[in-house]
Amino acid sequence: MVERCDVVVLGLGAMGAATVYQLSKAGVSVVGIDRHHPPHNQGSSHGDTRITRLSVGEGAQYVPIVRNSHRIWRELEELSGESLFEQSGLLVLTSSPEFDPNDKTDFTLRTIGLAQTYGIEHEVLSAEQIRQRFPQFANVHDTAIGYFEPGGGFVRPERCIDVQLKLAEQHGAILYKGETVTRISSNEQGVSITTNLRRLFANKLVISAGNWSSDLLGKPFDSLLSVFRQKLFWFELEENAGLVGHSPTFILTHGLGDDKVNYGFPALHGEGSLKIATAQYHTASSPQTMDRTVSAAEERDMYEHQVRGRVTGVTSKVVKSAVCAYTVTPDRHFIIDEHPSLQHTLLVSACSGHGFKHSAALGEAFAQWCMRGSTDLDLSSFSLERLKGKSL
Ligand SMILES: Cc1cc2nc3c(=O)[nH]c(=O)nc-3n(C[C@H](O)[C@H](O)[C@H](O)COP(=O)(O)OP(=O)(O)OC[C@H]3O[C@@H](n4cnc5c(N)ncnc54)[C@H](O)[C@@H]3O)c2cc1C
């Protein structure tokens, strides 16, 4: 028997959970399907915390999206009673011997520029002010520059997903977890979706399959999307470090190139550690073959190259670690577009390592696309067209 519904959402991670929530809230009959049991630790949406900030140095096109997300996280907190979004304050800083105050590509300078253009509340800090206000950065270079956004901070990814999925079910969404979509086809009437357990027919399909997207969809996505394994580390706090309640969410640039940037989160009450990570874009992987453990050598390497002498108040001991993976496009911006050959299908790859903060608002926009074929937010810069002729 073929099950029928208005919309199927394939993948219930950050993007899919937000989409089924918004659709069900609007009264649309929606089925969500996930191969795992979200929130889970096999994709891109785990590890306790994700940075969020209004001045999105990745580009001006993201500013209206994140603004909407901040509104929705607060609405979800009201509805669920869960704490999802903490405005711990966000410090973006560059402390590097190579720092050039005229370098338009510097992430801190780009963030400051956007905040000025969009009237986002912030302070620009000198090296001395950074040292005084944030003792964990007591060692910054004399030329260091900082951007402090008091309204920035972090969200709790697993909780956000869990809350939205639970609310979606309360609104009548049907969620099939532990079930894998194996085949998709479409005709003028709608889309057929086959899983390992059933067949469905929907008027619309939203595909938000994260790391698995290129395997599922083939051309042209297999040459546009790459999966990169990333590691997360929780470093033990030094005794009497005094960071709990006094450390911000941060992004630290300490040289030129991707491997000279790290980011971290506040020392949280009761945890005794500080989460710090960096990103790599040189060794591609796949969800099937990825090593999901962090080795002792990787822990040592992280401490030596990213932490020692740069972030004070932590020891070299890693008390917890995790592996998570980015799905990355050639220009590191999202792909959000109608599928080039499947009819009635929206394809979403909103990762490249910076999508979570936008997920609540994107879910709202994808629900609008399903209901009326257009979105209040301008998502045109995420079209497939811009990547024509490009590959990884
Ligand atoms: C280490 C790390 C740090 C990050 N830091 C930040 C940050 O600080 N701030 C920020 O904004 N963003 C950050 N991001 C990015 C953000 O987390 C991602 O953009 C976001 O989680 C992507 O969500 P998604 O829904 O696309 O993927 P996922 O949440 O992985 O969801 C995809 C889902 O699809 C399911 N699925 C796949 N194939 C099938 C199938 N065939 N059938 C059924 N189900 C299927 C999977 O099981 C999975 O649940 C980070 C990402 C990582 C990995």
Automatic annotation (TrEMBL):
Residues 6-369 form the FAD dependent oxidoreductase domain. GO terms for molecular function: flavin adenine dinucleotide binding; N-methyl-L-amino-acid oxidase activity; sarcosine oxidase activity. Keywords: FAD, Flavoprotein, Oxidoreductase. This is N-methyl-L-tryptophan oxidase. Its cofactor is FAD. It comes from Pseudomonas karstica. The keyword Flavoprotein applies. SUPFAM superfamilies: FAD-linked reductases, C-terminal domain, FAD/NAD(P)-binding domain. Its EC number is 1.5.3.2. InterPro entries: FAD-dep_OxRdtase, FAD/NAD-bd_sf, MTOX. It comes from the Bacteria. It is an enzyme of class 1 (oxidoreductase).
